[in-house]
Amino acid sequence: MFLVNSTSDYKKPLIAGDADTLGVDAAVEVERYLTFRDNHAETPLVSLPALATEIGVGAIHIKDEGQRLGLGSFKALGGSYAVIRLVLEEAGRSLGRNVDVFELQSPEVRAIAKTMTVACATDGNHGRSVAQGAQLVGAKAAIFVHSGVSDERVAAIARFGADMIRVDGTYDDSVREAARVATGRGWTIVSDTSWPGYERIPGLVMQGYTAIVREALREMQEPPSHVFVQSGVGGIAAAISGHLAVVMGEDRPTFVVVDPARAACIVESAKAGYLIKIDHGEPTVMAMLECYEPSLVAWRVLSRVTDAFMTVDEDDAVAVMRKLANPADNDPAMVAGESGGVGLAGLIKVASDPGMKAALGLDQASRVFLINTEGATDPKKYEELVGRTPESVVANTFERAKA
C-alpha cells in the first residue's frame, strides 16, 4: 500500500506543545544529558554509494543505531532519558529545588530514586532502555512483555535487574496491562505510546530520539531531500519528522512513514484520516514494529508533517537484512535486525515503481536519509534469517575497510 497524505491536518503547523517537545532547545538538552552517560558515543552515519547507484538516487545515508549506548537500538535514547528526567523531577519536588543531571549519582537523588518503580510494556527494545535507565539511577523497573517477545529479548532486559511480567496477547494488550497494574501500585508508567490523558512522558521518550537527527545533520554536507523511517506506534518517525519540520520549516525533506503490511496501524490511520486501532492478524517478522494502535502524540505530529505512508512485506524486510549484511562493491556491511532496515525496504520499493517515484519526486539527485533502528537484538533470529552470525558480518566490515 502507498498513499500520499490527504488527512485534514496535513501541512498544518505542529501544535505549540509538540513543537516545544521536538524543538531545538529540547534537543540540545537531550544531547547535554547524553554527555553524562558513561558509554555515550555518537552513532555512525554510513554512506552507501553503490546501493544509491543501483537503485537510482544520488546518495543514501543510514544512521546506524545498532551501536547506541550498548543496547543495540535507537530505543536506548528514549526510555532511559525519560526515566532520568522523571527521577530528577521527583528529586526536585522532594528537595524543594531544581536538581540537574550532574547530581544524578548523588546520595540524595539515589535515595529518592530507590523509592520509585518505573514500568512499561515492550516488544523488547524500549523495555531494555527503561530497565537500563532504572539501573543507572537506582530505581526499580517492572517490564511487561507479551507472548510474542522471544526469550532472548526477555533475558536481555532482565539482565538490568528488571522484574519481567508476561502478558497474554499482543503488544497492545501488554500496554493496557502495564498501565492497569502500574496505576494500582503507584508505579510510574514510562510508555513509548500515548493515549488521551497520558502524553507528557511519551513526549519525553520521543524527545530523546531527536539526538539521532541532530547528529546526522551535523555530519551531512547537504541536508537530505527525502527521509524514510519505519514506524511501530509512531514515536521514532514523529520525533525525526517533527524535529526536521521545526528546524527546516518549508525546506524540510519529503518524509515517508513505512509500516509492516501485517501491522500497518499508521498507514491505516492515514487511510481513514484519523487515528484508528486495527485488528490483530498474523504476526510479522518485523517484531519491533508489531503494533496495532498508533501513539496519540505521534499521530498528531505525523498527520501534519508526513508526506506519504506505505507498507512493506515480510520478504522485503528480510531481503534488506541480507542486502545490508552482504553489500555491493565497496559499501560497508551493516548488521540490521528484523525491523532495522524497514525504511530502506520502503525506499527500494519506491525506487522500483515509477508512479511512487513520481509522487515523491525521487530521482538521481535525491539525497536519502534512513535509520537502522536496531542491530541483532535477537542474534539467533538474525542468523536464522540472514544465514550469517552478526559477528561474522562485523568481522567482514573490518576486512573490507582494510582492503
Structural commentary:
InterPro entries: DiNH2opropionate_NH3_lyase (IPR010081), TrpB-like_PALP (IPR001926), TrpB-like_PALP_sf (IPR036052). This is Diaminopropionate ammonia-lyase. With 403 residues, the chain is an alpha/beta fold. The protein folds into 2 domains: 2-73 and 202-402, Rossmann fold, CATH 3.40.50.1100; 79-191, Rossmann fold (3-Layer(aba) Sandwich). Helices cover 46% and strands 14% of the residues. The chain is built from 17 helices and 11 strands. The chain has helices spanning 16-21, 24-34, 49-55, 79-95, 107-113, 125-137, 151-158, 171-185, 200-219, 235-248, 265-272, 296-305, 314-325, 342-351, 354-360, 379-386, 390-402; strands spanning 2-4, 45-47, 59-64, 117-122, 140-146, 163-167, 188-189, 226-230, 254-260, 308-312, 367-372. It has a 7-stranded mixed β-sheet with strand order 1-10-9-8-11-3-2, with helices on both faces. It has a 4-stranded parallel β-sheet with strand order 6-5-4-7, sandwiched between helices. Helix 7 links the parallel strand 5 and strand 6 (163-167). It is globular. The termini are far apart. The model has no long low-confidence stretch (mean pLDDT 95).
